[in-house]
């Protein structure tokens, strides 16, 4: 029998890729979104697989009991993927616009699963390296190597009263830290810099040379002591094999060119 999955944020960048993978693996997916318009767009984007998709509307993920009805699907859910979280600096009247949905939305979903969805065997939610890295100290001697055990040092006061980037980093930190006691995985391939990206594009797409910064070909634009990330855990336990930077850059470029044309 096909697995039944609840997915939040399926209209977003990461969520839409997760949705595609779930559908390709034969899962039936209920997408929880904030508006019917967003749900309709998902159905249009995945028109060939509409029969595997249902939509449920959760207009305010911060409201108490926001997900209580959504998690009680029929047939019952086997797993929940949580990707919904705000990320926009535009028109941010208060840093709480980042913090409250990330924290309360996650807690509401976890509580709803615990209280109303006993069939769920696994909850997976996507975070960000923003919860791991100390962005105020990106360079060190010796260079810092981050792992799943690391957390950014932003305090609640800094997240509430600082600039929006601190609010975003705080939203990831405070949403994830208390509930990450099971397993946390940093899904990151390797360190790279934008000189690498430019060199790859110029090598494979000379017709884009006028649109691609030259920089200093063959050199590194990262400063000495720039941090890196240890991804041995995700490789060992989940068997993840990362694509090369070259493949990633060229695939992204082809996609953008297809959209442009």
From TrEMBL:
Pfam assignment, any one: Epimerase
Listed transmembrane segments: none
Xref: Gene3D superfamilies: NAD(P)-binding Rossmann-like Domain
Domain NAD-dependent epimerase/dehydratase: 5-131
GO MF annotation, one: oxidoreductase activity, acting on the CH-OH group of donors, NAD or NADP as acceptor
InterPro entries listed in its UniProt record: Epimerase_deHydtase (IPR001509), NAD(P)-bd_dom_sf (IPR036291), NAD(P)_dehydrat-like (IPR050425)
Keywords: Oxidoreductase
Entry similarity comment: Belongs to the NAD(P)-dependent epimerase/dehydratase family. Dihydroflavonol-4-reductase subfamily.
Protein name: Unnamed protein product
